[in-house]
Write a structure and sequence with these properties.
Strand order of the largest sheet: 3-2-1-4-5-6-7
Shape: elongated
Radius of gyration: 19 Å
Order of helices and strands: HEEEHEHEHEHHE
């Protein structure tokens, strides 16, 4: 696992992980390339400042991440998860034992893309992907 530290530039870091595209995933920030996961330790930067400065596309864990400057989010629709949780609470309050309730997987997913960040990174998002997005932040 390679680590980005203060004083390293992108070329130095990418030299440690090899050539090719790198995607930084915030909350760590982690970069994945060719199926390998790399953790990046950013010093003094937010994940967004780091990714913009180093021109690394970022994918986050919530819509809030994209609203704050991340490039994209693809994952479960959080509002739908809360609705499903309310359904579980309702059933438990009506007397169903929690152990008798089935485990459910998310069924509704959302794709959110931040075009402002894409432009800042010099990326062109394919129109087909924009059409599939649930939300596009201009």
């Amino acid at each position: 696992m390679s680590r980005y530290t203060a004083g390293m530039n992108r070329r130095t870091f990418l030299g440690t992980v090899g050539a090719g595209p790198v995607l930084a995933v915030a909350l760590g920030v982690e970069a994945q390339q060719a199926g390998k996961l790399y953790r990046i330790a950013y010093v003094g930067d937010t994940p967004f400042e780091f990714s913009l400065r180093e021109r690394l596309p970022t994918a986050g864990l919530s819509r809030r991440f994209v609203d704050q400057g991340g490039l994209m989010y693809y994952g479960p629709d959080r509002l739908d998860l809360w609705r499903r949780a309310a359904h579980y609470v309702d059933r438990i309050l009506r007397g169903v034992k929690p152990a008798d309730l089935p485990v459910e997987q998310p069924t509704k997913f959302e794709l959110i893309i931040n075009l402002k960040t894409a432009k800042a990174l010099g990326l062109t998002i394919p129109p087909s992907l924009l059409l599939r997005a649930d939300h596009v932040i201009q």
